[in-house]
From TrEMBL:
Belongs to the aldehyde dehydrogenase family. This is NADP-dependent glyceraldehyde-3-phosphate dehydrogenase. One of its GO terms (cellular component) is cytoplasm. The active site is at residue 264.
Protein backbone atom coordinates (compact mmCIF):
# COMPACT_ATOMS: atom_id res chain seq x y z
CA UNK A 1 0.00 0.00 0.00
CA UNK A 2 2.29 2.71 1.27
CA UNK A 3 5.11 1.92 -1.12
CA UNK A 4 3.04 2.34 -4.25
CA UNK A 5 2.23 5.27 -6.52
CA UNK A 6 3.21 8.76 -5.43
CA UNK A 7 4.87 7.53 -2.27
CA UNK A 8 7.10 4.88 -3.87
CA UNK A 9 10.28 6.93 -3.41
CA UNK A 10 9.91 7.14 0.37
CA UNK A 11 10.52 3.42 0.90
CA UNK A 12 13.63 1.38 0.13
CA UNK A 13 12.99 -2.37 0.18
CA UNK A 14 10.74 -2.82 3.18
CA UNK A 15 12.15 0.05 5.29
CA UNK A 16 10.82 3.59 5.02
CA UNK A 17 13.55 6.16 4.35
CA UNK A 18 14.18 9.29 6.36
CA UNK A 19 14.06 12.76 4.78
CA UNK A 20 16.98 15.16 4.77
CA UNK A 21 18.42 17.78 2.41
CA UNK A 22 15.46 17.47 0.06
CA UNK A 23 15.76 13.72 -0.52
CA UNK A 24 14.83 10.32 0.89
CA UNK A 25 17.77 8.47 2.40
CA UNK A 26 18.73 5.13 3.88
CA UNK A 27 20.60 5.27 7.16
CA UNK A 28 24.23 4.21 7.22
CA UNK A 29 23.45 2.40 10.49
CA UNK A 30 21.91 -0.47 8.51
CA UNK A 31 19.38 -0.72 11.35
CA UNK A 32 15.64 -0.13 11.48
CA UNK A 33 13.02 0.60 14.13
CA UNK A 34 10.01 -1.75 13.99
CA UNK A 35 6.48 -0.34 14.20
CA UNK A 36 4.08 -2.78 15.84
CA UNK A 37 0.47 -2.80 14.64
CA UNK A 38 -1.53 -2.43 17.90
CA UNK A 39 -4.32 -4.67 16.58
CA UNK A 40 -2.28 -7.62 15.29
CA UNK A 41 0.64 -6.96 17.68
CA UNK A 42 2.97 -7.85 14.80
CA UNK A 43 5.58 -5.72 13.00
CA UNK A 44 3.73 -3.78 10.32
CA UNK A 45 6.26 -1.15 9.17
CA UNK A 46 9.95 -0.46 9.57
CA UNK A 47 11.66 2.93 9.59
CA UNK A 48 15.33 3.90 9.39
CA UNK A 49 17.33 4.12 12.62
CA UNK A 50 19.24 7.34 11.96
CA UNK A 51 22.69 7.94 13.43
CA UNK A 52 23.78 11.04 15.32
CA UNK A 53 25.93 11.98 12.32
CA UNK A 54 22.86 11.88 10.06
CA UNK A 55 20.95 14.05 12.54
CA UNK A 56 23.90 16.46 12.51
CA UNK A 57 23.78 16.70 8.72
CA UNK A 58 20.01 17.29 8.73
CA UNK A 59 20.41 20.14 11.24
CA UNK A 60 23.32 21.59 9.26
CA UNK A 61 21.21 21.57 6.05
CA UNK A 62 18.32 23.13 7.96
CA UNK A 63 20.59 25.90 9.24
CA UNK A 64 21.84 26.76 5.74
CA UNK A 65 18.37 26.56 4.12
CA UNK A 66 16.82 28.75 6.84
CA UNK A 67 19.01 31.75 6.02
CA UNK A 68 17.64 31.89 2.46
CA UNK A 69 14.10 31.00 3.49
CA UNK A 70 14.03 33.94 5.94
CA UNK A 71 14.60 36.24 2.93
CA UNK A 72 11.77 34.63 0.94
CA UNK A 73 8.78 37.00 0.71
CA UNK A 74 6.01 36.21 3.15
CA UNK A 75 3.41 35.74 0.40
CA UNK A 76 5.66 33.14 -1.30
CA UNK A 77 6.03 31.18 1.94
CA UNK A 78 2.24 31.25 2.29
CA UNK A 79 1.78 30.11 -1.32
CA UNK A 80 3.92 27.00 -0.72
CA UNK A 81 2.03 26.20 2.49
CA UNK A 82 -1.31 26.41 0.62
CA UNK A 83 0.12 24.03 -1.98
CA UNK A 84 1.26 21.56 0.71
CA UNK A 85 -2.18 21.72 2.35
CA UNK A 86 -3.91 20.84 -0.93
CA UNK A 87 -1.52 17.91 -1.57
CA UNK A 88 -2.03 16.68 1.99
CA UNK A 89 -5.81 16.57 1.49
CA UNK A 90 -5.40 14.84 -1.90
CA UNK A 91 -3.42 12.07 -0.18
CA UNK A 92 -5.70 11.69 2.83
CA UNK A 93 -6.51 8.03 2.05
CA UNK A 94 -2.98 6.50 2.18
CA UNK A 95 -1.98 8.67 5.16
CA UNK A 96 -5.17 7.72 7.03
CA UNK A 97 -4.48 4.05 6.28
CA UNK A 98 -1.11 4.39 8.01
CA UNK A 99 -2.82 5.88 11.07
CA UNK A 100 -5.18 2.89 11.18
CA UNK A 101 -2.27 0.42 11.03
CA UNK A 102 0.22 2.26 13.26
CA UNK A 103 -1.91 3.69 16.05
CA UNK A 104 -5.24 1.82 15.62
CA UNK A 105 -7.11 5.07 14.96
CA UNK A 106 -10.64 4.33 13.68
CA UNK A 107 -10.70 4.83 9.89
CA UNK A 108 -13.12 7.80 9.86
CA UNK A 109 -11.15 9.60 12.58
CA UNK A 110 -7.91 8.97 10.68
CA UNK A 111 -9.28 10.69 7.55
CA UNK A 112 -10.59 13.56 9.70
CA UNK A 113 -7.11 14.04 11.21
CA UNK A 114 -5.50 14.44 7.77
CA UNK A 115 -8.17 16.84 6.47
CA UNK A 116 -7.98 18.88 9.69
CA UNK A 117 -4.20 19.03 9.24
CA UNK A 118 -4.56 20.41 5.72
CA UNK A 119 -6.99 23.03 7.02
CA UNK A 120 -4.54 23.97 9.79
CA UNK A 121 -1.70 24.50 7.27
CA UNK A 122 -3.91 26.73 5.08
CA UNK A 123 -5.21 28.76 8.01
CA UNK A 124 -1.66 29.18 9.29
CA UNK A 125 -0.52 30.53 5.90
CA UNK A 126 -3.30 33.15 5.98
CA UNK A 127 -2.88 34.07 9.63
CA UNK A 128 0.92 34.24 9.25
CA UNK A 129 0.67 36.75 6.39
CA UNK A 130 -1.59 38.96 8.51
CA UNK A 131 0.23 38.57 11.81
CA UNK A 132 3.81 38.82 10.51
CA UNK A 133 2.91 41.54 8.02
CA UNK A 134 2.32 44.02 10.82
CA UNK A 135 5.08 45.76 12.73
CA UNK A 136 4.94 48.33 15.51
CA UNK A 137 5.95 51.97 15.55
CA UNK A 138 6.86 53.88 18.72
CA UNK A 139 8.01 57.44 19.27
CA UNK A 140 10.41 58.47 22.02
CA UNK A 141 8.43 61.37 23.49
CA UNK A 142 5.77 59.00 24.80
CA UNK A 143 8.15 58.29 27.70
CA UNK A 144 8.70 61.04 30.30
CA UNK A 145 11.73 63.27 29.84
CA UNK A 146 12.16 62.52 26.13
CA UNK A 147 11.82 64.67 23.04
CA UNK A 148 10.59 63.25 19.72
CA UNK A 149 14.11 62.43 18.56
CA UNK A 150 13.76 58.67 18.02
CA UNK A 151 11.45 56.49 15.94
CA UNK A 152 11.35 52.83 16.94
CA UNK A 153 10.27 50.17 14.45
CA UNK A 154 9.69 46.57 15.55
CA UNK A 155 9.09 43.48 13.46
CA UNK A 156 9.09 39.73 14.04
CA UNK A 157 12.01 37.67 12.73
CA UNK A 158 12.54 33.88 12.73
CA UNK A 159 14.51 32.02 15.41
CA UNK A 160 16.37 29.56 13.15
CA UNK A 161 16.00 25.76 13.33
CA UNK A 162 12.83 24.54 15.06
CA UNK A 163 12.79 20.97 16.44
CA UNK A 164 9.29 19.46 16.38
CA UNK A 165 8.46 16.33 18.39
CA UNK A 166 4.79 15.27 18.11
CA UNK A 167 3.11 12.37 20.01
CA UNK A 168 1.70 9.07 18.74
CA UNK A 169 -1.98 9.95 19.15
CA UNK A 170 -2.04 12.77 16.55
CA UNK A 171 1.21 12.23 14.65
CA UNK A 172 0.07 14.20 11.59
CA UNK A 173 -2.05 16.96 13.13
CA UNK A 174 0.32 17.73 15.99
CA UNK A 175 3.27 17.65 13.58
CA UNK A 176 1.75 20.21 11.18
CA UNK A 177 0.66 22.37 14.14
CA UNK A 178 4.40 22.83 14.72
CA UNK A 179 5.66 22.72 11.11
CA UNK A 180 3.29 25.29 9.56
CA UNK A 181 3.90 28.10 12.12
CA UNK A 182 7.66 27.46 11.94
CA UNK A 183 7.73 27.67 8.13
CA UNK A 184 5.48 30.71 7.71
CA UNK A 185 7.66 32.50 10.28
CA UNK A 186 10.81 31.89 8.21
CA UNK A 187 12.27 29.05 10.29
CA UNK A 188 13.46 25.67 9.08
CA UNK A 189 12.16 22.50 10.69
CA UNK A 190 13.55 19.18 11.89
CA UNK A 191 10.79 16.70 12.70
CA UNK A 192 11.36 13.72 14.99
CA UNK A 193 8.11 11.74 14.69
CA UNK A 194 6.94 9.24 17.32
CA UNK A 195 7.74 5.59 16.52
CA UNK A 196 4.03 4.68 16.34
CA UNK A 197 2.90 7.16 13.70
CA UNK A 198 6.29 7.64 12.02
CA UNK A 199 5.15 6.32 8.63
CA UNK A 200 2.07 8.57 8.57
CA UNK A 201 4.40 11.47 9.44
CA UNK A 202 6.83 10.54 6.64
CA UNK A 203 3.92 10.51 4.16
CA UNK A 204 2.85 13.91 5.43
CA UNK A 205 6.40 15.26 5.01
CA UNK A 206 6.39 13.91 1.46
CA UNK A 207 3.40 16.16 0.73
CA UNK A 208 5.57 19.14 1.74
CA UNK A 209 8.35 17.73 -0.47
CA UNK A 210 5.94 17.53 -3.43
CA UNK A 211 4.85 21.14 -2.80
CA UNK A 212 8.40 22.22 -3.69
CA UNK A 213 9.84 23.70 -0.50
CA UNK A 214 13.58 24.49 -0.75
CA UNK A 215 15.83 21.53 -0.05
CA UNK A 216 17.16 21.27 3.48
CA UNK A 217 14.35 23.40 4.89
CA UNK A 218 12.39 20.39 6.18
CA UNK A 219 13.92 17.21 7.60
CA UNK A 220 12.29 14.17 9.14
CA UNK A 221 14.63 11.92 11.13
CA UNK A 222 13.47 8.60 12.53
CA UNK A 223 15.19 6.43 15.09
CA UNK A 224 15.42 5.35 18.68
CA UNK A 225 14.97 8.03 21.32
CA UNK A 226 17.86 6.48 23.27
CA UNK A 227 20.14 6.99 20.25
CA UNK A 228 19.11 10.40 18.88
CA UNK A 229 16.64 11.88 21.42
CA UNK A 230 19.01 13.77 23.73
CA UNK A 231 21.32 14.47 20.79
CA UNK A 232 18.49 16.34 19.05
CA UNK A 233 17.09 18.20 22.05
CA UNK A 234 20.54 19.31 23.29
CA UNK A 235 21.91 20.19 19.85
CA UNK A 236 23.56 23.64 19.90
CA UNK A 237 22.06 24.58 16.51
CA UNK A 238 18.44 23.97 17.55
CA UNK A 239 16.84 27.36 18.24
CA UNK A 240 13.43 26.28 19.57
CA UNK A 241 11.72 23.03 20.65
CA UNK A 242 8.03 22.28 20.28
CA UNK A 243 7.15 19.03 22.03
CA UNK A 244 3.88 17.25 22.75
CA UNK A 245 3.95 14.10 24.84
CA UNK A 246 4.50 12.87 28.39
CA UNK A 247 7.18 12.95 31.08
CA UNK A 248 9.97 13.14 28.49
CA UNK A 249 9.11 16.82 28.13
CA UNK A 250 10.19 17.53 31.71
CA UNK A 251 13.57 15.88 31.01
CA UNK A 252 13.93 17.91 27.79
CA UNK A 253 13.20 21.18 29.61
CA UNK A 254 15.94 20.39 32.14
CA UNK A 255 18.54 19.51 29.51
CA UNK A 256 17.86 21.91 26.64
CA UNK A 257 19.73 25.16 26.04
CA UNK A 258 18.41 28.66 26.72
CA UNK A 259 15.88 28.53 23.90
CA UNK A 260 12.09 28.97 23.65
CA UNK A 261 10.20 25.81 24.62
CA UNK A 262 6.60 24.96 23.78
CA UNK A 263 5.44 21.88 25.67
CA UNK A 264 2.18 20.09 26.24
CA UNK A 265 2.65 17.17 28.57
CA UNK A 266 -0.68 15.51 29.26
CA UNK A 267 -3.41 16.04 31.80
CA UNK A 268 -5.89 14.65 34.27
CA UNK A 269 -8.79 16.63 32.86
CA UNK A 270 -11.58 16.88 35.43
CA UNK A 271 -15.28 17.25 34.66
CA UNK A 272 -17.23 18.93 37.49
CA UNK A 273 -20.99 18.31 37.35
CA UNK A 274 -23.25 20.60 39.41
CA UNK A 275 -26.76 19.75 40.58
CA UNK A 276 -28.55 21.90 38.01
CA UNK A 277 -26.67 20.49 34.99
CA UNK A 278 -28.45 19.10 31.91
CA UNK A 279 -27.62 15.44 32.62
CA UNK A 280 -28.31 14.23 29.07
CA UNK A 281 -25.83 16.80 27.77
CA UNK A 282 -23.34 15.77 30.48
CA UNK A 283 -23.66 12.04 29.68
CA UNK A 284 -23.16 12.61 25.94
CA UNK A 285 -20.10 14.80 26.54
CA UNK A 286 -18.55 12.51 29.15
CA UNK A 287 -18.85 9.49 26.86
CA UNK A 288 -17.47 11.39 23.87
CA UNK A 289 -14.83 13.12 25.98
CA UNK A 290 -13.80 10.05 27.94
CA UNK A 291 -13.94 7.29 25.34
CA UNK A 292 -13.26 8.73 21.86
CA UNK A 293 -10.03 7.28 20.43
CA UNK A 294 -10.16 4.89 23.40
CA UNK A 295 -9.35 7.71 25.83
CA UNK A 296 -5.88 8.22 24.30
CA UNK A 297 -6.12 12.00 24.24
CA UNK A 298 -4.49 14.60 26.49
CA UNK A 299 -7.86 16.39 26.55
CA UNK A 300 -9.94 13.30 27.32
CA UNK A 301 -12.22 13.50 30.36
CA UNK A 302 -10.04 11.64 32.90
CA UNK A 303 -12.19 11.99 36.02
CA UNK A 304 -15.84 12.95 36.58
CA UNK A 305 -16.53 14.82 39.83
CA UNK A 306 -20.29 14.58 40.30
CA UNK A 307 -22.52 16.08 42.98
CA UNK A 308 -23.98 13.22 45.03
CA UNK A 309 -27.61 14.30 44.53
CA UNK A 310 -27.40 13.69 40.75
CA UNK A 311 -24.76 10.95 40.69
CA UNK A 312 -27.10 7.92 40.53
CA UNK A 313 -29.06 9.37 37.62
CA UNK A 314 -25.95 10.51 35.73
CA UNK A 315 -24.02 7.26 36.18
CA UNK A 316 -26.97 5.35 34.76
CA UNK A 317 -27.22 7.70 31.75
CA UNK A 318 -23.45 7.38 31.08
CA UNK A 319 -23.60 3.62 31.49
CA UNK A 320 -26.49 3.31 29.01
CA UNK A 321 -24.25 4.98 26.41
CA UNK A 322 -21.05 3.11 27.33
CA UNK A 323 -22.66 -0.30 26.78
CA UNK A 324 -23.58 0.78 23.22
CA UNK A 325 -19.97 1.59 22.25
CA UNK A 326 -18.64 -0.78 19.59
CA UNK A 327 -15.37 -2.55 20.38
CA UNK A 328 -12.97 -4.02 17.83
CA UNK A 329 -10.47 -3.28 15.05
CA UNK A 330 -9.98 0.28 13.72
CA UNK A 331 -10.63 -0.92 10.14
CA UNK A 332 -14.27 -1.54 11.18
CA UNK A 333 -14.58 2.03 12.52
CA UNK A 334 -15.24 0.73 16.02
CA UNK A 335 -15.61 3.27 18.82
CA UNK A 336 -13.09 1.47 21.03
CA UNK A 337 -9.95 0.12 19.35
CA UNK A 338 -6.73 -1.39 20.75
CA UNK A 339 -4.52 0.98 22.76
CA UNK A 340 -1.20 1.80 21.18
CA UNK A 341 1.19 -0.63 22.91
CA UNK A 342 1.12 -3.63 25.21
CA UNK A 343 2.91 -1.64 27.92
CA UNK A 344 0.12 1.00 27.73
CA UNK A 345 -2.49 -1.74 28.16
CA UNK A 346 -0.56 -3.18 31.12
CA UNK A 347 -0.39 0.25 32.80
CA UNK A 348 -4.14 0.82 32.34
CA UNK A 349 -4.78 -2.62 33.85
CA UNK A 350 -2.61 -1.76 36.88
CA UNK A 351 -4.74 1.32 37.60
CA UNK A 352 -7.97 -0.64 37.10
CA UNK A 353 -6.86 -3.45 39.44
CA UNK A 354 -5.77 -0.95 42.10
CA UNK A 355 -9.26 0.63 41.99
CA UNK A 356 -10.91 -2.79 42.19
CA UNK A 357 -8.81 -3.79 45.18
CA UNK A 358 -9.70 -0.54 46.97
CA UNK A 359 -13.45 -1.00 46.43
CA UNK A 360 -14.49 0.98 43.33
CA UNK A 361 -17.81 -0.09 41.79
CA UNK A 362 -17.34 -1.48 38.27
CA UNK A 363 -20.33 -0.71 36.03
CA UNK A 364 -19.04 -3.31 33.53
CA UNK A 365 -16.87 -6.35 33.93
CA UNK A 366 -13.23 -5.55 33.17
CA UNK A 367 -12.32 -7.21 29.88
CA UNK A 368 -9.08 -7.23 27.89
CA UNK A 369 -7.74 -9.10 24.86
CA UNK A 370 -4.17 -8.18 23.94
CA UNK A 371 -4.06 -4.39 23.52
CA UNK A 372 -7.84 -4.17 23.32
CA UNK A 373 -9.50 -3.01 26.55
CA UNK A 374 -13.30 -2.82 26.71
CA UNK A 375 -14.72 0.52 27.91
CA UNK A 376 -15.07 0.66 31.67
CA UNK A 377 -17.01 3.07 33.87
CA UNK A 378 -15.97 3.03 37.54
CA UNK A 379 -18.23 4.55 40.19
CA UNK A 380 -17.54 5.37 43.86
CA UNK A 381 -13.87 6.02 43.16
CA UNK A 382 -12.01 7.62 46.04
CA UNK A 383 -9.10 10.11 45.89
CA UNK A 384 -6.69 7.51 47.38
CA UNK A 385 -7.08 5.25 44.30
CA UNK A 386 -4.40 5.63 41.63
CA UNK A 387 -7.03 6.02 38.88
CA UNK A 388 -8.20 9.22 40.65
CA UNK A 389 -4.78 10.85 40.23
CA UNK A 390 -2.84 9.16 37.42
CA UNK A 391 -3.47 9.50 33.69
CA UNK A 392 -4.49 6.10 32.26
CA UNK A 393 -4.61 7.11 28.56
CA UNK A 394 -7.19 4.41 27.95
CA UNK A 395 -10.96 3.72 27.80
CA UNK A 396 -11.54 3.77 31.56
CA UNK A 397 -13.39 6.53 33.39
CA UNK A 398 -13.55 7.06 37.17
CA UNK A 399 -16.51 8.83 38.82
CA UNK A 400 -15.91 10.51 42.19
CA UNK A 401 -19.03 11.57 44.08
CA UNK A 402 -18.65 14.98 45.73
CA UNK A 403 -20.62 16.78 48.47
CA UNK A 404 -19.85 20.31 47.30
CA UNK A 405 -18.44 22.17 44.34
CA UNK A 406 -15.50 23.21 46.57
CA UNK A 407 -14.64 19.53 47.06
CA UNK A 408 -14.58 19.08 43.27
CA UNK A 409 -12.33 22.10 42.77
CA UNK A 410 -10.00 20.88 45.53
CA UNK A 411 -9.66 17.48 43.86
CA UNK A 412 -9.06 19.06 40.46
CA UNK A 413 -6.42 21.45 41.81
CA UNK A 414 -4.64 18.78 43.87
CA UNK A 415 -3.46 17.24 40.58
CA UNK A 416 0.09 17.79 39.31
CA UNK A 417 -1.54 18.38 35.92
CA UNK A 418 -3.50 21.41 34.75
CA UNK A 419 -4.31 21.07 31.07
CA UNK A 420 -8.08 21.40 30.65
CA UNK A 421 -11.16 20.94 32.75
CA UNK A 422 -14.88 21.39 32.30
CA UNK A 423 -17.92 22.35 34.34
CA UNK A 424 -21.58 21.59 33.65
CA UNK A 425 -24.24 23.90 35.06
CA UNK A 426 -27.11 26.06 33.79
CA UNK A 427 -25.98 28.92 36.03
CA UNK A 428 -23.43 31.02 34.12
CA UNK A 429 -22.35 32.86 37.28
CA UNK A 430 -21.47 29.57 39.00
CA UNK A 431 -19.75 28.38 35.80
CA UNK A 432 -17.48 31.44 35.72
CA UNK A 433 -16.66 31.14 39.44
CA UNK A 434 -15.74 27.46 39.02
CA UNK A 435 -13.74 28.26 35.87
CA UNK A 436 -11.78 30.95 37.71
CA UNK A 437 -11.05 28.55 40.56
CA UNK A 438 -9.85 25.63 38.41
CA UNK A 439 -6.08 25.60 37.96
CA UNK A 440 -6.07 24.54 34.32
CA UNK A 441 -4.98 26.17 31.06
CA UNK A 442 -8.50 25.98 29.63
CA UNK A 443 -11.94 25.43 31.15
CA UNK A 444 -14.83 24.36 28.93
CA UNK A 445 -18.31 25.36 30.10
CA UNK A 446 -21.00 22.78 29.21
CA UNK A 447 -18.74 20.81 26.87
CA UNK A 448 -16.04 18.15 27.17
CA UNK A 449 -12.40 19.31 26.94
CA UNK A 450 -10.95 19.54 23.41
CA UNK A 451 -7.90 21.05 21.81
CA UNK A 452 -9.58 22.54 18.75
CA UNK A 453 -10.42 24.52 16.82
CA UNK A 454 -6.70 24.68 16.11
CA UNK A 455 -6.47 28.48 16.19
CA UNK A 456 -7.74 28.68 19.78
CA UNK A 457 -5.05 29.15 22.47
CA UNK A 458 -4.10 25.81 24.02
CA UNK A 459 -1.89 25.59 27.09
CA UNK A 460 -1.39 23.79 30.36
CA UNK A 461 -0.41 24.81 33.88
CA UNK A 462 1.87 22.91 36.29
CA UNK A 463 3.17 19.62 34.79
CA UNK A 464 0.87 19.97 31.78
CA UNK A 465 3.40 22.17 30.04
CA UNK A 466 4.87 25.56 29.27
CA UNK A 467 4.10 28.05 26.55
CA UNK A 468 0.87 28.26 24.60
CA UNK A 469 -0.18 26.66 21.33
CA UNK A 470 -2.80 27.71 18.81
CA UNK A 471 -1.69 29.08 15.44
CA UNK A 472 -0.99 32.73 16.38
CA UNK A 473 0.60 31.77 19.70
CA UNK A 474 2.88 29.28 17.95
CA UNK A 475 3.95 31.85 15.35
CA UNK A 476 4.64 34.29 18.18
CA UNK A 477 6.73 31.71 20.06
CA UNK A 478 8.74 30.80 16.97
CA UNK A 479 9.75 34.39 16.26
CA UNK A 480 11.57 37.10 18.17
CA UNK A 481 11.19 40.85 18.13
CA UNK A 482 13.73 42.85 16.12
CA UNK A 483 13.95 46.57 16.86
CA UNK A 484 15.37 49.26 14.60
CA UNK A 485 15.68 52.79 15.99
CA UNK A 486 15.95 55.83 13.76
CA UNK A 487 17.71 58.66 15.55
CA UNK A 488 16.49 62.03 14.29
CA UNK A 489 18.72 65.08 14.24
CA UNK A 490 17.96 67.57 16.99
CA UNK A 491 16.24 70.45 15.26
CA UNK A 492 18.30 73.67 15.38
CA UNK A 493 15.33 75.86 14.56
CA UNK A 494 11.58 75.75 14.96
CA UNK A 495 9.64 75.06 11.81
CA UNK A 496 6.42 76.96 11.16
Amino acid sequence: MAGSGTFAEIIGGDVFNYYSDGQWNKSSSGKFVPIINPTSRKIHFKVQACTQEEVNKAIESAKVAQKLWAKTPLWKRAELLHKAAAILKEHKAPIAECLVKEIAKPAKDAVTEVVRSGDLVSYCAEEGVRFLGEGKFLVSDSFPGNERTKYCLTSKIPLGVVLAIPPFNYPVNLAVSKIAPALISGNSIVLKPPTQGAVAALHMVHCFHLAGFPKGLISCVTGKGSEIGDFLTMHPDVSCISFTGGDTGIAISKKSAMIPLQMELGGKDACIVLEDADLDLVAANIVKGGFSYSGQRCTAVKVALVMKSVADTLVKKINDKVIKLTVGPPEDDCDITPVVTESSANFIEELVMDAKKKGATFCQEYKREGNLIWPLLMDNVRPDMRIAREEPFGPVLPVIRINSVEEGILHCNASNFGLQGCVFTKDINKAILVSDAMETGTVQINSAPARGPDHFPFQGLKESGIGSQGITNSINMMTKVKTTIINLPTPSYTMG
